[in-house]
Amino acid sequence: MAPVLHYFPEQPPCRSVLMTAKAIGVDLELKHVNLLKGEHLTPEFELLTPTKMVPVLVDGDLILPEGRAICQYLCNMYAKDDTWYPKDPKKRALVDHRLMFEAWFLYRNFFDYYLYAAQYGGNFEEERRKKIGHSVVNV
To answer: Count H helices, E strands: the chain?
Structure first.
């Protein structure tokens, strides 16, 4: 049976999982969770993850939330080789670094900037823009 991905296609972490699955050739059963309708706030979905966030992967008895962790798991479990997620500790450390940098620094800055602009009528403040530029340039 194929792993089941609970996802919302517009979310970048969900798209990362979809791209990883495609790259390594694993088929996923897709369960669309409509965030706009609050489907992630149901008691049933909370049983999968108390954070009520997508994506969530269910593979047999494994329930795994968090897009980057799902990508790593799919590579470890289903990839035919280690092209996408190296087994060599030094090479893997570089991939893990990029995943964490994207998760905790780059993605957060982009999200803060665009969410702020959306909430406040599209006012893209210069200081917020500089912060994003700083996060990209100073890698």
So the answer is: 6, 4
What's the number of CA atoms in the CB half-sphere (13 Å) around residue 133? 6
CA distance 102 to 117: 21
Is residue 54 within 8 A of residue 7, CB to CB? The reply is yes
pTM of the model: 0.78
With 60 as the cut, is the pLDDT of residue 139 above it? no
Which residues partner with 30 through β-bridges? 5
> In whole numbers, what is the pLDDT of the chain averaged over residues?
86
Q: Are 24 and 79 in contact (CB under 8 A)?
A: yes
Calpha distance 9→92 (Å, rounded)? 27
* 9 three-class SS: coil
Pick the more confident residue, 77 or 105. Answer: 77
Measured between alpha carbons, how far apart are the two ends of the chain, in Å?
A: 40
Beta-strand ranges (E) seen in the chain are 4-7, 29-32, 56-59, 62-65
Q: Are 16 and 28 in contact (CB under 8 A)?
A: no
Cα–Cα–Cα angle for 116, 117, 122, rounded to 5 degrees: 160
